[in-house]
Design brief:
The protein has about 260 residues and is of the alpha+beta class. The protein folds into 2 domains: about 110 residues, no CATH class; about 110 residues, no CATH class. Helix content is about 30%, strand content about 30%. It is built from 8 helices and 15 strands. A hairpin with a 4-residue loop joins strand 14 and strand 15. Helix 1 packs across helix 5. The chain starts with 10 loop residues before the first strand and ends with a strand. It comes from Neobacillus massiliamazoniensis. This is Oxalate/formate antiporter.
Length: about 260
């Protein structure tokens, strides 16, 4: 049974497929994606969407979201779109150079959430292909460079922790705490685990006086996120495989592999 949208925010699942250059994930939403790449995203060719402030490219007969409207798109209920799929591109004129074969490949990507050939088009200069079903529930993102994936993960973990640990001000207003992004080196060292599929559980974080310990479990390869969540509920009672630790005094991230 599908969990409520809010439940997505305190558990991250990531599985990295190095050969086909994509990551399957649960728990990271488009809004977080836009935050992680703030100012560096190009225009988005919308393959599946319900965004009503998009423009039409007459050659492909597809809508696109210009760079200056991406922040507006990120404020929409993208989760409520159901299917939300796009590929980024540098300039609109480049869309007019796409062949019928390439347009067919893009339509297939949006429809099947699978590639016919690796979906990196030099004429578009795309860094990503973003394929989501109930955004944040099931996301399949192709990365030209996995450096971008580690950037997204580092910012997302810190951001989620900030949302979970809201501070009360003197007036009783709850405000978000800010944590620095997790060091990329720490996350890179988890790569062998991420290739198997891991859960990073903010909800199970151990908040101590001087540190916060976030457990990481190696959980396996899942395409169905209901099955993944059931497996997580089974494994959450067992000793984790690693801990991502935030030292409050030093304001630094560390990693312990168990």
């Amino acid at each position: 049974m599908k969990r409520h949208h809010q439940d997505i925010r305190d558990l991250i699942y990531v599985h990295l497929n190095q050969t086909d250059q994509y990551v399957l994930s649960y728990g990271i939403e488009f809004e977080e994606f836009v935050t992680a790449f703030s100012g560096s995203l190009n225009h988005l060719l919308l393959l599946k969407h319900r965004f009503d402030d998009s423009d039409l490219n007459r050659h492909t007969l597809l809508q696109y979201c210009p760079q200056d409207r991406i922040k507006k798109l990120a404020t929409q209920d993208v989760y409520g779109y159901g299917n939300f799929c796009w590929i980024d591109f540098l300039e609109e004129e480049l869309l007019n150079e796409l062949t019928g074969q390439e347009i067919a490949e893009l339509l297939y990507l949006g429809h099947q959430k699978q590639h016919l050939k690796l979906p990196f088009y030099n004429k578009l200069g795309n860094r990503f292909v973003y394929l989501a079903r109930d955004d944040g529930w099931y996301n399949k993102i192709y990365y030209r460079s996995f450096k971008d994936f580690f950037q997204l993960l580092s910012v997302s973990i810190a951001g989620k922790l900030g949302h979970l640990r809201l501070e009360k001000t003197l007036l009783g207003v709850r405000k978000k705490r800010f944590y620095p992004p997790v060091n990329k080196e720490i996350l890179l060292s988890l790569t062998p685990f991420i290739k198997e599929g891991i859960c990073i559980s903010l909800k199970d974080a151990d908040h101590q006086r001087g540190r916060i310990e976030i457990p990481v479990w190696v959980i396996g390869d899942f395409d169905n996120m209901d099955d993944m969540y059931e497996e997580y509920e089974q494994i959450a009672h067992k000793t984790c495989h690693a801990k991502i630790i935030f030292d409050k005094k030093l304001k630094e991230w560390k990693l312990t592999v168990i």
